[in-house]
Structure formats: structure tokens, C-alpha cells
Amino acid sequence: MNHLIAPSILAADFGNLQRDVEMMNNSQADWMHFDVMDGMFVPNISFGFPLLKAVKKHATKPIDVHLMIVDPDRYLKAFAEEGAYNITVHYEACPHLHRTIQAIKELGCKASVAINPHTPVMLLKDIIADLDMVLVMSVNPGFGAQKFIQHSYTKIAEVKELSQNYNPQLLIEVDGGVDITNAAKLLKAGANVLVAGNSVFSSADQVAAITQLKQASA
């Protein structure tokens, strides 16, 4: 399959949010990545339902919601109702992960699990057949513009190997430090969804930056 590009709204200009959403609409972006942080699971606070509603009002691309929060089950229904296409929860935050994934699917959303840089891939073995996507965090979650963790290539390859045995249609997303210098290597390792924040929104030509990522090849 052709890989997908999901620019991260966390790096957008919130003072010109409609402009940036429309830029993504008119680009080769496939999804819009929406990071939700609660200041507890990660050491930062981002945004929630009101901003998702504002983005959804203008977005013509699916919204990829990444919940970096404790007890995400409390808010699954609300995020689905506000327009989430895909909902990602963290393995580390879900003590009853199968139930959480089932709840996401019952709400009509795609279901995804994220793993932090220190979390072994093999912990996903018992859940991977039920997932639409795995998100490999290539930085420690919480802040944008962090340095890419090199071991992430190995983790992506491990997810790919696991998926071939249990879920060949699985999407593998990578988030953190993604730019045109490592896109091809990430795709070669097995990723097929690239989240890019700072490398897109700090670019003088944001549409061209997205196009470059979309045209990258393994």
C-alpha cells in the first residue's frame, strides 16, 4: 500500500488554526493527527473536545486522535461523537486493553494502540490481531520537536514481523522526529503511516513539505 501522511496539529499555529486545517485539506496529507495530553500520563497538557470540534468543522480529511491520557475509556464516546476517525490509546494506560479496543470499535472508529519507546513490542502479541493500527512512539510522548530515538527502526521492524503472523493488514504508524531525512528508512523498516509535526509546520512551504514526505520511498 502507499504510505499515509498525518500532519500533527500539535505543531500548528493555533492563532490561525482554520488556515492550517485548510492547508492540510489542500495538501497530499491523508489524515490529521490530533494529540490529546492530560498532564498526568505525559508531562504536558494539550487540547480536547472543543478544539477537536473546531478542527472537524473545517477538516475534509479523517482525524487521527491520539489519547495520551490516563483512563481513556472515560472519554472514548465523546471523542467518537466529536469526529474521531481513528482512536489510539496507550498500552501503558489501559489495564483492560481488549475491552478498550472493543469499545472503540463499537463506537464506529478504527482502533489503535501506541507503545512508548521503552515498551517491548512483544507485549502486543495478544492484542495485535484485534487492532487496525499500532503507533510506535519514536520520542517520549509529551512534547513536539524532540530528537528521534534511533532504536525506533528496530521496533517498527518487530511490529511488522509480528503483524505478518497475526494481522497482515495492520497499519504501522510512527510519531516523533519524523522528517524527510528519515522517512525512507522508516518506510523500509515497515512503517506505513508517518506523523510529522514540526518538520511540516516550521517549513516555509508546508504543502511542499507534506508532498516530499508523501513521495518518499523505502
List the helices and strands and how they pair.
Elements: E1 4-7, H1 17-25, E2 32-37, H2 49-58, E3 63-68, H3 76-81, E4 84-90, H4 97-106, E5 110-115, E6 133-137, H5 152-166, E7 171-175, H6 183-189, E8 193-196, H7 198-201, H8 206-215
Parallel strand pairs: 1-8, 2-3, 3-4, 4-5, 5-6, 6-7, 7-8
GO molecular function: D-ribulose-phosphate 3-epimerase activity; metal ion binding
Pfam family, one: Ribul_P_3_epim
Cofactor: Mn(2+); Co(2+); Zn(2+); a divalent metal cation
Note down, in words, how this protein is organized.
The chain has helices at 17-25, 49-58, 76-81, 97-106, 152-166, 183-189, 198-201, 206-215; strands at residues 4-7, 32-37, 63-68, 84-90, 110-115, 133-137, 171-175, 193-196. It contains eight helices and eight strands. The protein has a single domain (4-215), classed as Aldolase class I (TIM Barrel), CATH 3.20.20.70. α3 (76-81) links the parallel β3 and β4. The mean pLDDT is 96. With 218 residues, the chain is of the alpha/beta class. It is globular. Strands 1-8-7-6-5-4-3-2 form an eight-stranded parallel sheet. InterPro entries: Aldolase_TIM, Ribul_P_3_epim, Ribul_P_3_epim-like, RibuloseP-bd_barrel. It comes from Mucilaginibacter psychrotolerans. GO terms for molecular function: D-ribulose-phosphate 3-epimerase activity; metal ion binding. Its EC number is 5.1.3.1. It catalyses: D-ribulose 5-phosphate = D-xylulose 5-phosphate.
- Mean pLDDT comes to 96
Instruction: Please identify, by name, the CATH architecture.
Output: Alpha-Beta Barrel
CATH-assigned homologous superfamily:
Aldolase class I
Distance between the termini: 12 Å
Total discrete domains = 1
